[in-house]
Design a protein that fits this description.
Length: 298
């Protein structure tokens, strides 16, 4: 069985970008600058972003990226998650890390990193995904933290971030097994023990993806949808990536209409349900018969 080499190319690019970014991020940095820098670096290294660079702060767990005129800035006391997706010809590397600017959460961040490593160390073909969830859940609780139970890792496929198999962050019965030489993202999200341990949808939506290539009979909207297909296929994107073809003030309205017309799906920003802080680490892995290859090894 062969894994397409482009998975490893994407992994190398993502690793380099994360390493550089982790060194550079500081209090006072604009979230918008972090996102554009990450996305620019990916392109400079010969890849393409598989989704907009996610920068999720404190109780925002996932699905936030800078908006067009985003003014938000990393503050002293923040816990910052940076989630980077790279693809080469649609073959994806998905990886994330957390930086703490708040000593109260250093332990949470360390624990999440350790739990990811524990989970990865048990990855191989034939392991039940629920057993990985079990290790994550136990690893979290023995360190005094709680996993987010409604976020999970996932199978990756070409041009497809969620390939139909989830890797839960808690124990689940009767789950499928990892297949050797498929590609998966493992991503524990942990919160404090007094957290709800689940995320809920925020009202904000800043990330979208094409559902299908359906025309809705509005010339401008159909043109935009076709351009989205040409640029991103079914991978997630954000309004920032369309400023060269849509008036800045119109983008959101048009995207909303395409969501209403079921041409696009929107990914709401996800918040820890009780407002507690969340840490996340993620790597992309390939199970073999006897072990694991990490494509985003940094
Ligand atoms: Mn990710
Ligand atoms: Mn992921």
């Amino acid at each position: 069985m062969k894994v397409p080499q482009d998975y490893f190319k994407a992994g190398k690019i993502a690793s380099k970008v994360c390493k550089e970014t982790a060194k550079g991020v500081a209090i006072g940095d604009k979230v918008l600058d972090i996102c554009t820098k990450v996305e620019g670096m990916i392109k400079g290294l010969g890849g393409a972003p598989a989704f907009p660079c996610n920068v999720c702060i404190n109780s925002i767990a996932a699905h936030y990226t800078a908006e067009i005129d985003d003014e938000s800035v990393i503050q002293d006391g923040d816990v910052v998650k940076i989630d980077v997706g790279v693809h080469v010809k649609g073959f994806i590397a998905d990886t994330a890390f957390t930086i703490s600017f708040n000593p109260n959460y250093n332990e949470l961040v360390m624990a999440t990193k350790d739990v990811l490593n524990e989970a990865i160390s048990m990855v191989r073909g034939g392991i039940k995904v629920g057993d990985i969830g079990h290790v994550i859940e136990n690893g979290a609780s023995k360190r005094g933290f709680r996993p987010i139970s409604n976020l999970s890792g996932h199978l990756l496929k070409q041009y497809c971030i969620h390939g139909g198999v989830s890797i839960p962050n808690v124990w689940v019965a009767n789950t499928p097994s990892l297949k050797a030489y498929e590609v998966y993202a493992v991503e524990p999200f942990l919160t404090t023990s007094d957290g709800a341990g689940i995320v809920r949808d925020d009202r904000r939506e800043v990330i979208y993806a094409l559902i299908g290539r359906r025309k809705i009979g509005d010339k401008k909207l159909d043109f935009l949808a076709e351009e989205i297909w040409n640029r991103f296929k079914t991978l997630p994107f954000t309004a920032r990536w369309l400023t060269d073809i849509v008036e800045k003030d119109e983008t959101k309205k048009m995207l909303k209409k395409l969501v209403k017309g079921k041409v696009l799906r929107a990914y709401p920003v996800l918040l820890e349900a009780s407002g507690r802080y969340v840490a996340q680490f993620e790597k992309t892995v390939v199970p073999t018969e006897s072990g694991v290859i990490v494509t985003t090894d940094y």
